[in-house]
Amino acid sequence: MSPDLKASSGPSGQAVANDYDSFAEAYAAETESNLLNGYYVRPAVLDLAGDVAGRRILDVGCGAGPLLESLRDRGAIVTGVEPSAKMLELAGRRLGDGTALHQAGLGGGPLPFPDGSFDDVVACLVLHYLEDWQAPLADLRRVLVPGGRLFVVVDHPLVYKLVDPDADYFAVSKRSEEWTFGGRGAPMVFWHRPLHAMTSAFTEAGFRIAVISEPPPAPGARERFPEELAEVFKDPSRTAFLSMIFFVLEAA
Length: 252
Ligand SMILES: C[S@@+](CC[C@H](N)C(=O)[O-])C[C@H]1O[C@@H](n2cnc3c(N)ncnc32)[C@H](O)[C@@H]1O
Fold this sequence. Notes:
Blueprint: H1 20-31, H2 35-49, E1 56-60, H3 66-73, E2 77-81, H4 85-95, E3 100-102, E4 118-124, H5 134-143, E5 144-155, H6 157-163, E6 173-181, E7 184-192, H7 195-204, E8 207-213, H8 221-224, H9 226-230, E9 244-251
Helix pairs in contact: 1-4
The chain binds S-adenosylmethionine (SAM).
């Protein structure tokens, strides 16, 4: 973790929201093998993806590249896009020169790939940063071959209502959080959308919903994170916790 992480600021002196450049190293270090990313989200995506040997896979918002590395280790031909220059640099260091990495993101025009370039696309913990899903999903559909798969992981929409019981679950609405790295705050802004808005956006963009998953944490999580999971699993018959929702979509 970077000990001298500096929060960047906008023209008014206010910290910029979702500024991954300003906490890239700290984020990458913290999420390398933590509960949420290392023992829940990434293993679940890899499970859903199954045998990926020989598949051309694009990871959009690849961050420092941990999922790209795991997919590559399983024989996939991987490409990453990431808007944060610092995150991309970390991904480059992890993956070496042989992996195609591009500084690009969703919502700023088409991705820099011809139609039908990929067998699978992963958008892991990314779409909840976007208010509008229509153009980004259409572009993800465009870069997939027919029958190709899109893996989406986003904040589970029920968590919004659990955290704030007064919130309007049914509205697409902006919410804010403060993350902390090395004692410094990082303002984060996300877009909540109800489940029906997610599924409609997928089908309108030309995807068929193959799987909706609310997976348990990976084997070994309970032993490795006993304190974090004590409350959730105080009833030993429980198997999972509410955090993210996972979709496997097929390009129609
Ligand atoms: C929570 S991190 C997840 C990183 C990686 N997908 C993973 O699961 O480890 C979110 C990433 O999405 C990137 N991101 C934010 N807005 C994006 C956009 N509009 N298009 C693509 N990526 C975006 C961020 O820069 C950051 O690297």
